[in-house]
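pasting for the record
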Amino acid sequence: MSYTLQLWEKPADWPWPTTKADADAQFERVFATPPPGQNPRFLVWGRALQERYPEAMDVWLDGSEDGVTEDATLGFGINTRTEHWDDAFEFAWAQATRLGLNLYDPQSGVHYLGNGDVPEEPDLQLKRAEQARKAGDDATAWAEYRAHAARGNLHALYAMGRALRFGTMGQRRHFDLAAALQLLGAHDAPTRQDAQAFYERFPVEAKGRIQTLMARLKSASGAMLLTIVDGERKAVDDAYVHNEQMLLYTRKRIEAADGMKAAASMGHELAAFYTALESVIGWEEPSYENARYWCQRAVDWDHEPAKRLLALMHERGWGGPVDMAEAAKWNAAARDQWQQEQKLRQAKEEAESPGGLSLAPMAPSAPATAPVVWTGSVLRDLVGWFAREGNPHAAFYMGTLDEHGRDGGLVNLAQARDWYAQAAEAGHADGTYNLGVAIENGTGGPRDKQVAKALFMLANTRGTTMRVDDLKIAPHEQGPVRALVAALREPGRLRAVLREKGLQAGAGGIGAPPRGAAGAAVVAGVGAAAAAGLSGTDWGRTGGAPTPPAAAASPQSPAPGRSRGQLAQDDGEDDDDRMPERDRSYQRTTFSLHLGHLALLIGAANVVLLILFFKEGASFRTGMAVMGLIAAFGAWRTGRDFDWPPAARAAVAVVAAIPMVGMAVSVWMLFRSFRGRE
């Protein structure tokens, strides 16, 4: 018994049929045309089918046994009594699609078009993709959709858009591309409504980008369409990687922060997670609500560390109300995801290992970590969480807090040194510089001039904002210092080198409270707030769970604690003007010229002018008072470099609010004096 089929080719200048009526009409026109001569594609198709399933090829309906025909269509039959006749049919369909030929089934009246479409059965052309998805084979499903999308299949375009919108089939989100593909592939009323509703959620500038992208996709076909899709997706991933690295080069931290936020808005879960940290340490006033928002976005996009952090935010009321039920929910979700990832990793190792046994070395059991002691400062505790996760910007920020004893903690120079080492090992430029300062001065541990010089050289190459103009390396030191630079810049080697030289304690030093009576008072003061462990984190840090690798995440870190010279300028812009007020308070502790010193000079100069031009009396005393206020402003602004206490700075700030008026009065008095002498 034969199952008959007809093979035919659509002329290049005809559009692809979109309905059964269109397909029937085109087939009849082709069938009725005079014999055009042998079609070489028919021969290629017939030989491929005959070689693969020779027993299934029952009869060539045109009377030709070798598959050669001069007719406009090629008729053939498949023997349904053979064991693999269904597979032969699938192969015949796949080969026809590969060659751009159409297959017509007279028994059912169905047209299998060369672009992968089946007008009579809209979902049939994606059957293999759906089967692969149900079997959990996302790679095959995505490849099937791509192949059909390249042929202009609307259902495949729409499916790709949905995958990029929701991050399914192992694909990272890309919202602009998702909206464009959904609009292009919408093929009925429900899909058009869904695509349009998604598009309307974009801001005006994003809609413009989507329209431009749609125009490019419409004008492309085949491999070029896939090239555009891949290029757009790669651009977001490349932007994330570029900004992740640029954040470490402090000179470009603001530009990198903007780029990271743009990648987050496109659906990049890692960028969203790190933008949450930027919302806290990258602004004059930390926004914990924004931090929770971006953390929630990363959770929605299935980022496991973000689930642990969101659980902690709900548990401690960071950026919103306390909700223990939500905390437990996201804790459980993070634990389940982590365990599932471990099972998949183990299964992969076993599949790739001889005999099905994993050859990966077993991780030693991790000792129980000390309970996390909450300081009561949301800023310190939240940034500390990121730092313990391995984030270099958070580690650098924690180093500055411990070095100066701010935001709920006391001065802890040893711990600050450990934080700087963690940041420097990840490539943080200013963290490397501050570590060099600590080792040069012996703060928080032993001192070593050669290692300090190597760190200063490394910080300079990494783009630190601080100048190293007075670095002096003797001729006999050049070889050892260069060797140290090479060793320190090796990935993951910096802290090991410091430990070999006895310049840093083990990693366990990070997170320890200050020692001595003051440290005991801190622990006692926050005893009620101490947790039995970081509920959203400890399960992932004990019992052999690995610590996540360090990753650059947040821009706009605070400036280093000490300068070796004048603050470096970046492309003519003053980094101090771009730095948040909260960060500038402990930026430098040595002299550098700025507005405060200028105010002192103006105050002194005007006092001299008053003495020369004014007679003693009320006007003289008033002028002296005004000039004194100007000098007070200069003293206040300059004093910020010397780490004044917040209360003293606030008191001087009240006094310094008057100098602007005093300056105007002084200029007016001088003007009157000059006019009176004319």
